[in-house]
Amino acid sequence: MLKVLLRIFASLPLPLIHGAGVIVGWVLYLFSKKFVRRTRNNLSFLQIASSPSRLRQLVRKSGKETGKGLMETFAIWFRPQSAALKWVKDCKGWEHVETALAEKRGLIFLTPHLGCYEITALYYAARHPISVLYRPPRQGWLAPLIEEGRNRSQIKLAPTNLRGVRNLLQALRKGEAIGILPDQVPEFGEGAWADFFGRPAYTMTLVEKLAESTGATVLMAFGERLPWGRGYIIHIEPFNTPPTPENINSQIEGLVRQCPEQYLWSYRRFKQPKPHATAKRNPTSDTQ
């Protein structure tokens, strides 16, 4: 029944889907103290806002964009691929993809929690195969929805375990592409502390290891969400430095500054990974 309702919802025009997202965002802003506190804390600590009024404005906008992101995700998952891709109005930087594919060394897409990160993999998969690293959700009911929504076209899912990493490595060695959320907090022992907007954030080292072992090209990508449900613009940028945690966070910062309201500020980017007892303590993690 839920899948039927989601398919009906996915058939709506994008302005209506984003309109529903705005309503969800206002509910978060008005009734979720945790969402507002975490968003405000992150924006305050990272000094993204230039004034108290700008901070309040960004918190409200972040709620709206978070709601849009939630609603559009379900719509993209359960909308026919050809119909969903009509929402993409432009792709800037595709020439970097063509250059990387010609070298046949594999391609690593880094797509942070910015804008619509579901549309980027779908756009690429309409042309070439891509394996996407994902963390299975804690909510059991959500897992089959994710698998059905993402595991289609030329998209393959690689779970965040040893088997999934092997799948990513095999894809790169075949000259294919993989997709990774580079600002997703890794498990303890699988990352390193690196500054993100001047604040320590536990950042994955997997990208650096994959690039070193395969010689794959690393690109940054994000789907900018246009206002009033007008669609998306996909941005693809080269990664011209070694993909160390420090360099990854630095390049993500540059993308976030382009449209800060579309970053997922409610995500616990600065949390302390377990086990707490033996991990090197992050002095700012208790603020999350």
Describe the structure.
The chain is of the alpha/beta class and 288 residues long. It has a domain at 87-287. Helix content is 46%, strand content 18%. The protein contains eleven helices and nine strands. The strands form two sheets. The chain has a seven-stranded mixed sheet with strand order 1-9-8-2-5-3-4, with helices on both faces. It has a two-stranded antiparallel sheet with strand order 6-7. α4 packs across α8. The longest helix is centred in the first third of the chain and has 27 residues, at 52-78. It is globular and about 50 Å long. 37% of the residues are buried.
Q: How far do the termini sit from each other? A: 37 Å
Average pLDDT reading? 92
Q: Radius of gyration from the CA trace?
A: 18 Å
The succession of helices and strands, N to C, reads HHHHHEHEHEHEHEEEHEEH
General form: globular
Largest sheet composition: 7 strands, mixed
Quick summary of this structure?
The protein has 11 helices and 9 strands. By secondary structure, the chain is an alpha/beta fold. The model is unreliable at 276-288 (pLDDT under 50).
Keywords, separated by commas or semicolons:
two-stranded antiparallel sheet, 7-stranded mixed β-sheet, 46% helix
Q: What's the structural blueprint in terms of helices and strands?
A:
Blueprint lengths: L1 H9 L3 H18 L1 H13 L6 H27 L2 H5 L2 E5 L1 H10 L3 E4 L6 H9 L4 E5 L7 H9 L4 E5 L2 H12 L3 E4 L10 E6 L2 E6 L1 H9 L2 E9 L6 E7 L6 H12 L32
Parallel strand pairs: 1-9, 2-5, 2-8, 3-4, 3-5
Antiparallel strand pairs: 6-7, 8-9
Helix pairs in contact: 1-4, 2-4, 3-4, 4-8
